[in-house]
């Protein structure tokens, strides 16, 4: 039997280093911006760089400018003469013909992780790949490009033809994978392929890395192979990392976009695969192709690539370090004799707990042989392991100074690489992968949180958590997790035990709100034949009651807090969880205080910083003991409060009582009491004084969201750090609510402040609710502010009006003016103008914000305004506002689409006719081209007016795509050479008009044209590639019978 030889060894050259070069093959070019840490080096230097510091032992590196080799290395292939027929010395040979052919085999890859999975998060990236089998359309690229996550990808050829790619193989450990495309889809170019030649990799070999470097369509970077035995680069804990292999190194300086590029020699052969680079140097790292070539043979035959593992990481250490671990001299002599080119041996670096080698191998074991054969390097060892899956192997090891044989079972590496995930509550979970387990030195077991979503986030079970149990049911694997979740009714609150991989020693127990109404519960399994992940919908949740009636009492307080004791039965705590970021929201969890204002009907009031929008789950806590769901009655469109209802049967005999409203309005200087709840949930009681009553000022937010305006706030002397509270008189009657206002700073940072909201602004609407009367909100579509008399005089205010103001008895000598028009389409906008000074409303003088309360119930208001120095009388129609505002949301291709809401309209001069994109989800088709904050006004040239017309146009286009027949057009590559030679086109033929739309010559590649308009009026036309498999169309609509008041259904 031939002795195993290290394929990357340096051998002494022959006396006449002349070799015949095989015919050059194709090269490939690619593009990759998958991750900054992989290829984040600056543009390549073409000069050879000195290799970086060797991490351990002596490397087989070529020192620049020195000849201090202990053995003369073999001269690289490009130092030899080419084939005798060329009669051209090597140094005169040109790379041009090699690159010209190779470039036709290189593709740019555009891809998206459609779900977070394993080490990857959802989102788009670019990379490079190259064709290694032109007949079957097989493309080689990196494993971190093919990814273990579900992806959607396209390849862009050098002639800018685009074709869909499907992932067919991703190696569980090494950084390579294969994708495939339908070669019949290529119309205008003959395909080339690049031959894999791992044995051509030699120290000193001149190379070219051809790919999509730094986002460029084509970049050719030069370098010289300097090392063949570099340790695999490490990209960080919790990231994908290669191991148990050597890497090649050169100073080509590849950067983002070049992942998956071929490393070519001058004959056009791929000698390695570009994988990563150093962030602070020009060093680039290349994966050897030995195992890649083996895997390709299996892929070409349609078979699974056998991969074995011991769940053990090995490292190659030089002899001087191996000696320190106990290697005996006579063993070293035998190894050196059998493998004179080797400079070290394999050593166990780490063993995962509960793996096949646990308690069999230990770190520091020196590997001498496997199954009776010496294994001096990675390739020889893993050649045996990969061919021994589900079998036992015998390893000969040296532990200390003792040489012994141990038997280890070889595990199927694919069995610990997850191919199934569960989508629930907007999150993704799956079995813990070998990659992550190794990264954190954990056993390969447990349910891993790839993304928390709405449900798991309610328990703060964030990404990289391991779920131990749900509702006290152990979840050792994904199947157990699915079974546990199927026992839980929608809306229930259950305990969940989990730990973070970063702190695996510390378990956490939190309460999780089960979500089966906002998001789907389904299982996805990878299908390597189609490249897709097949979904299976889970059965609906059990119909059990999620909440049972309970009773609670309030704890006694200190006698000094008697007033607070009297009011505590009116206090509740409110938690609000958003399933989707709509209506300008940037956060998903809110909390604050609420106050019972009625028990028949049951009503609670809170501020709009606690419940900012109508879409979400509301949980109300009574007496710090009982938690039940709530439903929104309405969100007030002007004032900072929300009315919420609840089921009184669920709180049993809990002694709650509504607050009493004081009929006395507060004035500056009034003394009162503050009763509230601190941020640590402690009770606060304090005497205070009204320091001022002034306008509440808030800024326009980005993204636009609701903000308070045209209202006065009550300020008190003391700065009280509280979640909320009540301003009450000595009898405990409420005069104002202490509420939180949300706004943004000049730099766009979210901020909030506390202020008092007079109960007079709440009482009238609350009385209608108590009497079950219909509630309509009418108001002015303008933002008002106050102006001093001096400024008004400058603008033309007459002395007569000044006297009226002075004689009115008002405590403020100010006037209101129009600061901003909130909706240019409203009837109010056609009457009032920015800058108008309002002198009177319905004959009454207006000097402060509270004056406009009187007109909110009317259909029209007669105003006298001062405009451009002239007094004019106008009749202003009032606008009607919604108590929910957003009543429907559509999810299409990962975009959340809704009718434009009020906060958006105030930031637009000419409101487009269409639907508004509120948010796009990472990794979705919409996230590539649609920006949140734009209007969709046309789809495929058809106008869009509202949500219904948008759905109609979209569904019609999807149906047309499904009905498309095979095109009659025959592309050039399908024609005979004679046909191609006889076809010529004149300018007249090329420019001939063609207004026929209903034909079979479809060349859109599955894209749909979208015309958008931004808030500043910028018009763009973009193309969205439809993906009906991962991104179906759904909608949220109001449903009073559901637990949250909404229902999610197919659209």
UniProtKB/TrEMBL annotation:
Source taxon at top rank: Eukaryota
UniProt xrefs under InterPro entries: PDZ, PDZ-like_dom, PDZ_sf, Peptidase_S1_PA, Peptidase_S1C
Annotated region (Disordered), positions in chain: 1-38
Segments forming domain PDZ: 325-401, 783-869, 891-967
PANTHER family to which the protein is assigned, alphabetical: PDZ DOMAIN-CONTAINING PROTEIN C1685.05 (PTHR46366:SF1), PRO-APOPTOTIC SERINE PROTEASE NMA111 (PTHR46366)
Sequence similarity: Belongs to the peptidase S1C family.
Name of the protein this chain belongs to: Trypsin-like cysteine/serine peptidase domain-containing protein
């Amino acid at each position: 039997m031939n002795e195993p030889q290290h394929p990357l060894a340096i051998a002494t050259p022959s006396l006449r280093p002349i070799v015949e070069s095989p015919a050059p093959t194709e090269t490939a070019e690619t593009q990759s911006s998958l991750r900054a840490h992989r290829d984040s080096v600056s543009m390549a230097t073409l000069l050879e760089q000195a290799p970086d510091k060797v991490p351990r032992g002596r490397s087989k590196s070529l020192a620049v400018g020195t000849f201090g080799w202990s053995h003369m290395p073999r001269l690289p292939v490009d130092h030899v003469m080419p084939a005798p027929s060329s009669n051209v010395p090597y140094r005169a040979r040109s790379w041009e013909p090699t690159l010209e052919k190779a470039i036709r085999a290189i593709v740019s890859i555009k891809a998206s992780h459609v779900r977070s999975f394993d080490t990857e998060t959802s989102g788009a990236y670019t990379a490079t790949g190259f064709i290694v089998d032109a007949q079957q359309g097989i493309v080689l690229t990196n494993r971190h490009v093919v990814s273990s996550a579900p992806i959607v990808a396209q390849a862009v050829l050098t002639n800018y033809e685009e074709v869909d790619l499907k992932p067919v193989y991703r190696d569980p450990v090494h950084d390579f994978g294969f994708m495939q495309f339908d070669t019949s889809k290529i119309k205008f170019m003959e395909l080339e392929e690049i031959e894999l030649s791992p044995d051509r990799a030699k120290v000193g070999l001149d190379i070219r890395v051809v790919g999509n470097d730094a986002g460029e369509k084509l970049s050719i970077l030069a370098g010289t192979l300097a090392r063949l035995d570099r340790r695999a680069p490490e990209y960080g804990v919790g990231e994908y990392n290669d191991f148990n292999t050597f890497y090649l190194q050169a100073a080509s300086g590849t950067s983002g976009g070049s992942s998956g590029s071929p490393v070519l020699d001058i004959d056009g052969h791929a000698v390695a695969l570009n994988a990563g680079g150093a962030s602070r140097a020009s060093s680039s790292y290349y994966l050897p192709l030995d195992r890649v070539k083996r895997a390709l043979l299996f892929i070409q035959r349609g078979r699974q690539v056998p991969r074995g593992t011991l769940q053990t990481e090995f490292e190659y250490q030089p002899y001087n370090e191996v000696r320190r671990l106990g290697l005996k001299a006579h063993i070293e002599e035998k190894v050196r004799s059998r493998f004179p080119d080797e400079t070290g041996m394999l050593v166990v670096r780490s063993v995962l707990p509960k793996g096949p080698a646990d308690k069999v191998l230990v770190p520091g074991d020196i590997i001498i042989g496997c199954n009776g054969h010496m294994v001096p390097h990675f390739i020889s060892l893993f050649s045996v392991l990969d061919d021994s899956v589900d079998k036992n192997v015998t390893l000969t090891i040296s532990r200390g100074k003792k040489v012994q044989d141990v038997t280890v079972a070889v595990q199927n590496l694919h069995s610990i690489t997850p191919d199934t995930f569960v989508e629930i509550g907007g999150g993704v979970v799956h079995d813990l992968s070998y990659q992550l387990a190794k990264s954190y030195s954990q056993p390969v077991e447990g349910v891993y949180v790839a993304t928390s979503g709405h449900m798991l986030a309610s328990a703060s079970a964030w990404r990289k958590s391991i779920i131990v149990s749900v509702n006290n049911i152990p979840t050792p694997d994904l199947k157990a997790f699915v079974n546990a979740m199927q026992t839980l009714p929608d809306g229930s609150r259950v305990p969940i035990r989990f730990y973070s991989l970063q702190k695996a020693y510390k378990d956490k127990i939190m309460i999780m709100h089960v979500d089966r109404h906002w998001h789907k519960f389904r299982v996805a399994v990878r299908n390597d034949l189609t490249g897709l992940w097949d979904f299976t919908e889970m059965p609906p949740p059990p119909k059990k009651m999620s909440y049972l009636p309970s009773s609670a009492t309030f704890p006694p307080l200190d006698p000094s807090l008697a007033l607070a004791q009297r009011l505590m039965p009116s206090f509740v705590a409110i938690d609000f969880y958003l399933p989707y970021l709509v209506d300008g929201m940037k956060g998903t969890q809110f909390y604050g205080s609420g106050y019972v204002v009625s028990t028949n009907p049951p009503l609670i009031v809170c501020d709009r910083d606690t419940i900012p929008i109508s879409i979400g789950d509301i949980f109300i806590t009574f007496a710090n003991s009982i938690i039940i769901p709530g439903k929104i009655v309405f969100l007030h469109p002007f004032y900072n409060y929300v009315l919420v209802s609840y089921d009184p049967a669920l709180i049993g005999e809990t002694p709650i009582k509504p607050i009493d409203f004081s009929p006395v309005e507060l004035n500056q200087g009034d003394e009162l009491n503050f009763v509230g709840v601190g941020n640590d949930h402690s009770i606060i009681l304090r005497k205070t004084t009204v320091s001022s009553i002034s306008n509440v000022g808030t800024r326009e937010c980005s993204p636009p969201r609701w903000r308070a305006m045209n209202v006065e706030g009550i300020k008190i002397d003391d700065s009280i750090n509280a979640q909320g509270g009540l301003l009450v008189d000595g009898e405990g009657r409420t005069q104002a609510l202490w509420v939180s206002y949300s706004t943004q700073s000049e730099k766009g940072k979210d901020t909030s402040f506390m202020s008092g909201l007079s109960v007079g602004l709440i009482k009238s609407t609350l009385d209608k609710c108590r009497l079950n009367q219909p509630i309509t909100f009418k108001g002015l579509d303008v933002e008002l502010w106050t102006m001093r008399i001096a400024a008004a005089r400058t603008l033309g205010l007459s002395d007569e009006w000044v006297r009226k103001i002075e004689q009115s008895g008002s405590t403020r000598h100010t006037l209101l003016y129009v600061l901003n028009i909130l909706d240019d389409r409203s009837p109010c906008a056609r009457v009032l103008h920015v800058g108008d000074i309002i002198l009177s409303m319905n004959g009454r003088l207006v000097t402060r914000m509270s004056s406009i309360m009187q007109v909110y119930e009317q259909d029209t208001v007669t105003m006298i305004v001062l405009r451009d120095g002239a007094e004019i009388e106008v009749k202003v129609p009032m606008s009607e506002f919604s108590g929910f505002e957003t009543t429907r949301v559509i999810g299409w291709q990962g975009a959340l689409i809704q009718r434009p809401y009020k906060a958006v309209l105030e930031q637009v001069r000419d409101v487009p006719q269409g639907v508004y994109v509120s948010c796009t989800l990472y990794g979705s088709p919409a996230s590539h081209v649609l920006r949140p904050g734009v209007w969709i006004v046309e789809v495929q040239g058809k106008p869009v007016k509202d949500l219904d017309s948008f759905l109609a146009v979209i569904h019609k286009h999807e149906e047309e795509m499904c009905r498309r027949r095979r095109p009659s057009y025959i592309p050039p590559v399908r024609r005979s050479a004679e046909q191609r030679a006889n076809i010529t086109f004149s300018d007249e033929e090329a420019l001939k008009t063609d207004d026929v739309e209903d034909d079979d010559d479809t060349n859109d590649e599955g894209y749909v044209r979208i015309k958008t308009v931004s808030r500043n009026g910028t018009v763009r036309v973009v193309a969205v590639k439809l993906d009906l498999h991962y991104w179906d169309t759904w909608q949220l609509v109001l449903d009073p019978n559901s637990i949250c008041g909404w229902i999610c259904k197919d659209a």
